[in-house]
Design the sequence.
């Protein structure tokens, strides 16, 4: 097994074959980001035991929230610029078109479960910051320090890197921008787990949960807890999610658009690629572009149609995602818009 939970061993399968597999699949299915191999298995087992779909989705992603080696989610996640782990999460359930979300939540490892409680036991859709923490504690969640030694050391290295160096010549907060697009030596990292699941009847549930962009500005909320940005679904149509540069999913309503494209008849992979083309077209800030005017960051979109067809597309080649078709979990290559130069 791979030692990097974000990159489990990929199945020996060509991209064309993986695309066809997703296009032709029908029936119950769970898909997730590349760090979700165990999560899709756990969610599928929970669905098989008759758990509500949305509970199955949350049970799946909690594996990543508990895993200290996954530095992009929950316990062990990389902290914000002040060294505090702040998590974002959202759940959606197609049976009720219910949404529950938390943003900038500190000190609670299972942000996904808090989001579920927001959906099921409050009149609200999204709670943030101190209010979200108070809500979680009032519902029996235990506060704990989510910063592991590994994450604290990474944060200290990042802070040390600032000594004597200027992050920007402009009057702007450069920290916490996307990896690869910030000033050299101050790269931040992304990660996150998204999971979508469907049953035999075209019902869907999904969850996206993350510690967000590492070393972000305190209080920064990304796409993950925002319905339409990092997650979206509609009963009988499909479910979608996003990982990667959250600001670019947020300002394009990327997940909402993936579901709309599926409704218009595109298969899941093509729906993701169509939305990525729009994201690329709308990326205009020079600091976010490479020397060929292409986005200098990645986002990956995940799509599950209500009949069980699935697909995934990334801005750049080299990304992977996980799927469970009811009998087996697989790690597949994502389709891409741009081919990354070798080396
Ligand atoms: N989308 C997440 C965020 O922007 C990070 C990621 O998925 O890598 O917070």
Sequence:
């Amino acid at each position: 097994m791979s030692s990097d939970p974000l990159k489990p061993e990929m199945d020996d399968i060509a991209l064309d074959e993986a695309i066809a597999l997703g296009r032709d699949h029908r029936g119950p299915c769970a898909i997730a980001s590349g760090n979700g191999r165990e999560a899709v298995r756990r969610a599928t087992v929970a669905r098989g035991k008759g758990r509500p779909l949305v509970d199955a989705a949350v049970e799946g992603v909690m594996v990543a929230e508990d895993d200290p080696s996954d530095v992009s989610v929950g316990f062990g996640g990389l902290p914000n610029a002040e060294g505090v782990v702040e998590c974002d999460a959202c759940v959606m359930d197609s049976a009720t078109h219910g949404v529950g979300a938390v943003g900038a939540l500190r000190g609670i490892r299972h942000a996904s479960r808090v989001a579920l409680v927001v959906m099921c036991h409050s009149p609200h859709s999204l709670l943030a910051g101190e209010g979200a923490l108070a809500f979680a504690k009032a519902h029996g969640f235990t506060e704990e320090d989510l910063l592991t030694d590994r994450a604290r050391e990474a944060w200290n290295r990042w802070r040390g890197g600032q000594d004597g160096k200027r992050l920007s010549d402009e009057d702007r907060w450069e920290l916490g921008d996307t990896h690869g697009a910030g000033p050299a030596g101050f790269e931040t990292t992304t990660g996150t787990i998204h999971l979508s699941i469907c049953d035999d009847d075209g019902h869907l549930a999904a969850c996206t949960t993350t510690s967000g962009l590492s070393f972000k500005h305190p209080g920064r909320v990304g796409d993950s807890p925002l319905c339409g940005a990092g997650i979206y679904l509609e009963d009988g149509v499909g479910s979608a999610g996003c990982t990667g540069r959250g600001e670019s999913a947020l300002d394009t309503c990327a997940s909402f658009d993936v579901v709309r494209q599926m409704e218009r008849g595109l298969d899941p992979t093509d729906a993701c690629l169509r939305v990525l083309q729009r994201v690329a077209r709308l990326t205009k800030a020079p600091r976010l572009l490479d020397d060929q005017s292409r986005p200098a960051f990645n986002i990956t979109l995940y799509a599950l149609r209500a009949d069980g067809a699935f697909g995934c597309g990334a801005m750049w080649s080299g990304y992977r995602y996980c799927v469970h078709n009811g009998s087996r979990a697989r790690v597949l290559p994502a389709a891409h818009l741009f081919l990354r130069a070798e080396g």
Residues 176-187 have pLDDT under 50 and may be disordered. Residues 190-192, 210, 212-213, 222-224, 230, 243-244, 246 surround aspartic acid (CB under 6 Å). Residues 99 and 227 are 7 Å apart (CA to CA). The radius of gyration is 19 Å.
